[in-house]
Amino acid sequence: MFNLISMNIKRIFIYRFGKFTFILEKINAMGLIASFGKYLLFIAEVFRKPERRSVMYRLVVKEVSELGLKSVLFVVFVSLFVGAVVTLQTAANMEGSWMPRYLIGYATRDAVILEFSPTIISLLLAGKIGSNIASSIGTMRVTEQIDALEVMGVNPVTYLVRPKIFALVFFNPLLISMSMFVGVIGGLIAGVLSGECTATEFIAGIQYDFIPFKAVYALVKTILFAFIIASISSFHGFFTEGGALEVGQSSTKAVVYSSVVIIVSNYLLTQLLLG
Amino acid sequence: MIEIKNIVKTFSGQEILKDISFVYEPGKTNLVIGQSGSGKTVLLKCLLGLYKPDQGSILFDGEDIVTMSNKNLKKLRKEVGMVFQGGALFDSLNIEQNVMFPLQMFSKMSEEERIDRVNFCLKRVNLENVNRLFPSEISGGMKKRVAIARAIVLNPKYLFCDEPNSGLDPYTAILIDNLLQELTYEYGMTTVINTHDMNSVMEIGERILFIKEGMMAWEGTKADILKADNKNLQDFVFSSELFKTIKSRSI
User: Fold this and answer.
1) How many structural domains is chain B composed of?
2) By CA distance, what is B76's nearest residue in A?
3) A150, closest residue in chain B (CA to CA)
4) Which structural domain range is residue A144 located in?
5) Is A148 on the interface with B (CB under 8 A)?
6) Which residues contact B174 (CB under 8 A, 6 or more apart)?
7) The complex's ipTM?
8) What's this model's pTM, rounded to 2 decimal places?
9) Same domain assignment for residues A27 and A117
10) Strand pairing of B55-60 and B215-220?
11) B123 inside domain
């Protein structure tokens, strides 16, 4: 009897283990683990001492301009309209209810600060900046410019990737703070123009029950997402092999992987900080 | 002097380089010839330390780069100039910045001295008034010359060129070949040139290594080629009607 139970347990264990490995095989788990290990080694290389600090500072400033300042108009435009839409949708949901109108401002503020600006704008930036980074580094790889750096004795990861990561991690919080501000302003304009609430009511809502930690949480997310966008996109660009077609594929992969990792880490970070 | 001994390199189980040994002499243009896919570029990348051979040693003036630490390899690379097939100029930098790049990274020169050095090197490769142009704004031949200027800006001891005249018209190709030879004599560099251009072989081939399917098939000088009885070499070098005619007339 005991033997029979033991045999059954063994059989179930083997079956479950088999199924587990089958699933791992299906999702190419070993490939994913290997890629993750390669990514970690790549990140370790980013933090090596650069050849020339003065050159590095100049490159960071250049990347702030290329990746950050050139995204300002895009972020302002999107934030303004999405803030307006959030206000209109909130107002539509409150139609005919007993709730005070200042809650429109309150809901818009929280939606914009907690989720829209840090997460949705970061996802949009993953598309805009991520594809830019992956394709520019990928093109450098396939045209042997990265080999040229290596032959000269310059660490290509430190030279190309580090300034991008530093620039984005530094500038993204500013960009997202701007997005928060513009989003709320967009909401205010839409609320007033549609007659759903007065400016005084909306502003009262913005000030109602404000918890500064929520802004801190949003900025922490922003920094993490900036790191994710810059590092994952650079990683895919850096290991491009082939020609123009592969550069395009790397660019697509960079956007997809950055977006997926942003979504998952958004959940984990929210659970950690607000859960 | 660069000496390679019994180099073997394998990719995905396939042997690309099979036991190659050769001596690249200083102050001479050392040519590596062979068909596309014969392993020339892999050999060059082994010499540059971009690929590590599975077996054998690569001695730069007696120092083996295969077993060398990364730190020492980095130091050695400051004595190496490289001209890539497409030039590999940095798209985001103009010509002056491209040539100045190694100086900015590794020299302690003042800005003025750097500019002087850049202008000297550009002039040396017969390029003037191109400093503010970007790589996309110049021709293929000019790109190669800028790449040569960038390669010699730090006065290297070793110069490597991967098919420096591919994609160029015959006149410009010969100009580039002659320029490389002149620079080799001028700086006493050990120059290694990968090519499958027979004009180059006959023009500047002071020492030639012929590779066939990853194996060293022949070595000699341009004068030896006409007399060589190696069938693979003869088939490769005299594949065109022009060279067949030249050979028959010279015989």
Assistant:
1) 1
2) A153
3) B50
4) 52-274
5) yes
6) B165, B199, B203
7) 0.85
8) 0.84
9) no
10) unpaired
11) yes
